[in-house]
Amino acid sequence: MSLASPDLRQLRYFVAVAEEQHFGRAAARLSMTQPPLSQAIRALEEALGVELFARTRRSVELTAVGADLLPEVRRILASADALRPLAQSLARGEAGVLALAFVSTADYGLLPLLLRDFGARYPRVRLQLAEATSDVQVDELVAGRIDAGLVIAPVPPRHAAQLAYLPVAREPLVIAMPAALSAQLGGAEAEADADDGWCATPVNLRDLADVPLVVFPRHLAPGFHDTIMDCYGAAGLAPRVGQEAIQMQTIVSLVSAGMGVALVPQSLRHLRRTGVVYRPLAQAVPTIETGLVWRVQEVSPVLAAFIEIVRAHAATVNAQPHA
């Protein structure tokens, strides 16, 4: 017949007897009588198959095995004592893991703000961050491999029933162009801020009609791609696509290499590249919307806490009309 495994009650009794070195004092400390305590220690020794105490009529001492076992039992009890506060922290969203993906455009404005505020409020939550295009994020969400994502709107209609979407930030597009081209168009390179390459002199898109465009592939970011094409269309232009790239860093690097110009969110001004100047558009300025998306049916306490942080940032954005 197999013996039952030791339980936490027996382990607490063992520590009390080991520390008091006396069954009577240990029983008083545990608010119980001595016979049940002695029986519990005997049951523990039988369950473990070893003697933990050397007993005489006047004293009780730990055996060598008992002495070696004592620190391990204390560690087990400490871990068990931590379970309740840990479970409560998990239930409140104060601990746990959050798998969050984000588009590269969010990396230069929105994402650092959200992570700073969330980290300050929930320092025990472990974040698993991954950069991915909007289409990849939607696939990862539907498959359950991430908890939430910062994407460029809109979310594909076919997933509207599965995914919740919260608009978070809108920002205007600006032109990223080679510094030499900027100087030719009347925005002297000296006007550009030495730190971020910003030149406040607007550029007319028609002046760039013959310059190749560096852009995201449409199938990876249809909302972003279409906004750029609509901007050219509103100016009566058909852009000449020179290069396509899926990362904002790559797009700006191609501009730096003289491969063309790019329409990018204004926050990309913080992505500094030698030989690149960022300038506003002279015509009506389109905006790009970034939002948080997650599965409707699977909102963990940690995710709910993150959504509240994002919602606080989005409050002023939602009060503004769409461009």
UniProtKB/TrEMBL annotation:
Residues 6-63 form the HTH lysR-type domain. Gene3D superfamilies: Periplasmic binding protein-like II, Winged helix-like DNA-binding domain superfamily/Winged helix DNA-binding domain. Keywords: DNA-binding, Transcription, Transcription regulation. Pfam families: HTH_1 (PF00126), LysR_substrate (PF03466). Belongs to the LysR transcriptional regulatory family. PANTHER family: HTH-TYPE TRANSCRIPTIONAL REGULATOR CYNR, TRANSCRIPTIONAL DUAL REGULATOR HCAR-RELATED. This is LysR family transcriptional regulator.
